[in-house]
Amino acid sequence: MNYNWLSNTSNAFQLAIRQTQTQLLSTDSSTSLYVKHRFLNHLFKKLESVRQLFLILILVALPFLACADNSENRREINVSDVPMLYKALQAANKNGEAHIKLAPGIYQLTKTLVISAPHISFIGDSANPKSVRIVGLGMRSRSQVENVISVTAKNFTLDGITLSDAGNHLIQISGEYNADFPTLKNCILQDSFQQLVKVSSSEKSDHASDYGIIDNCEFKYTQGIGPNYYIGGIDAHGSRGWMISNNVFRDIASPDNRPAEFAVHFWNGASNNTVENNTIIDCDRGIGFGLKGKPASGGAIINNLIVHQDNADPSADVGILLEQSPDTQILDNRIFLAHNYPNAIEYRFTDTINAVIVDNITNKPIRKRDGATALLIDNKRVKEVSSILTADELALLASLK
């Protein structure tokens, strides 16, 4: 199956972004603010329509593409203990095309679950992921890689399951093996010694993990702080076309004077990813695109809520960061940081060009650094957390303390 049309559609979306930015920047400086405001609304409505069309095409087409790739109807295998789980996965890895359904319970692993064939799903209880727990060998330092789940094949799905207690990552998706179209939804991911979800790549491979979906999941450290600074929520190298939406990230925080990695980080060649409608609470850093020497490009950070009020965390940092990430949008986010770091949003380095930062509400500045350029419009600074959060959101935060 040829997936080039997905890349072409994504490229068309990014072209629309660049054309919009060019039109905005080319408007005459004498144009009235009223006319510019109407012009801006018109252009961003067009841009949003293109973005929504792109996402609809992805969501509608992927199930049909998955069916088209299936050589047979997908088997269902029911398991209720660890030996059955290993046996079911061994059978599924022979030909792929299997739903492995886990009964409620605790599955204490003795070794990593390795997904090496396409179209394999682990299905628990999407309404109650706490009832199905896959537990690794412990959150502690290891000399060798030790994950709960390792994925080296396309179209893996994890739905309605809690993963916990890993020496490295709860799940590693290997872009170097072209593990495209992974889906994580309705899950709880907690307590790993390094990043909770790792999407890896390799300089020895041209492949990356593309078009992943992570939706309606909870990422957290259950002690309210991490075991070391080298932790994060989603850490994705080289990934393209991912959608991270409707998730909650809590307490991804370092215990020492080095900040933890981001709740969500796309970098090292990543492009055209979207992070939308997530809630990030008391994490050292919120959302990052790019890193100095390991850039990202394109994509959008939209309508996320980032709040940090836990001043016992020693190394809290920025809410949103673009670092060598051109052609990226930061739109409609809300950020309240009660710690001492001075900025809510930063864009850095001369490679960060054509960024658009619009309609964000923050209690701290949006800061340009190291020669970056961006278009900033209608961003708002406020002082009180009640000006950023709704009454229901304030009540939820109070209940988490």
Characterization of the model:
Mean pLDDT is 88; it is low at 1-5 and 25-32. The chain has 4 helices and 33 strands. The strands form 3 sheets. The chain has a 12-stranded parallel beta sheet, with helices on both faces. It has an 11-stranded parallel beta sheet with strand order 3-6-9-12-15-18-21-24-27-30-33, with no helix packed on it. Strands 4-7-10-13-16-19-22-25-28-31 form a 10-stranded parallel beta sheet. It has helices spanning 4-26, 33-69, 82-95, 391-400, and strands at residues 75-79, 98-102, 105-108, 113-115, 120-123, 132-135, 149-151, 157-159, 162-166, 171-174, 183-185, 188-192, 197-200, 213-215, 218-220, 234-237, 243-245, 248-250, 262-267, 274-276, 279-281, 285-289, 300-302, 305-308, 320-323, 329-331, 334-337, 345-348, 355-358, 361-362, 366-369, 374-377, 380-381.
Portion in helices: 10-25%
Mean pLDDT: 88
**How many β strands by DSSP?**
33
Low-confidence stretches: 1-5, 25-32
Total number of helices: 4
Q: What spatial form do the alpha-carbon principal axes imply?
A: globular
Radius of gyration: 21 Å
Classification by helices and strands: alpha/beta
- Biggest beta sheet summary: 12 strands, parallel
Beta content: 25-35%
